[in-house]
Amino acid sequence: MRTFKRTIFAFALGAIPVAGPGFGFDGAPVSPQDTVLPVVSPQPGTAAALKRAASPVAPTAPTSSFSTLQYQAEGGHPVAQWKLGKMYAEGDGVIQDDMRAFEYFSRIANAHAEDSPSAPQASIVANAFVALGRYYLSGIPNSKVKADTERAREMFSYAASYFGNADAQYDLARLYLKTPDASRDDFRYGARWLGLAAQKGQHQAQALLGQMLFNGDRLPPQRARGLMWLTLARDSATPDEAWIKESYNRAIAKASEDDRAMALQMLEHWVQGRRD
Description:
Blueprint: H1 4-13, H2 65-74, H3 78-90, H4 98-112, H5 122-138, H6 149-161, H7 166-178, H8 184-199, H9 203-215, H10 223-236, H11 242-254, H12 257-271
């Protein structure tokens, strides 16, 4: 893991290293199973009534590691369900199947929506809501999952508010900020969620917030602070996130010496934990 001190050093040189992509999950194919679409109340912190599909016959204990993962998922283990959902979403070791991925994520959301945010599996539950929200944004072709922006907003809002998930906060912010007819209240909500996600280290939120501050996009211009956020985002961006690198390069090229010096000071404060 790269340290922020390395970030500051690279910033001073005008170049920031790029983090590598994460690892995928392993798992085994499962038989298709109908899953109730998760329903979440739009009121943050309130879980809706949950429906569960019950199997009348308990499964037989498996004998291989692959079938063990499936067996655990069928038994309601959220970690196994998450691994299989990610496997199908990414086509990792199996044929990519968004509907099966959606089904596994739905099981997690339906069974664990009211789990404590401090529970060991809370991050998995929150990530399942985020995954479902992203499916609702675009829909799944030739399936019962249709594009539904409001449903996506509910999923993101629940994970952002109840679980405090930074990815959900970023996705929710984008929904508010990118709406063509966004009202002043929409923008205020979006900026708030964006700031919360950026403070938690969500690098995409840092990049978008940095863009807005540096360019004065619907926010009072703060070029040094915007450059600070863009520098942090640039350090964490993956190779396929070219927009972050390009945003940083444009900003660093336009920044004055004073902007760069102030941004460097802010980065030092961030490293020291003061986060001015």
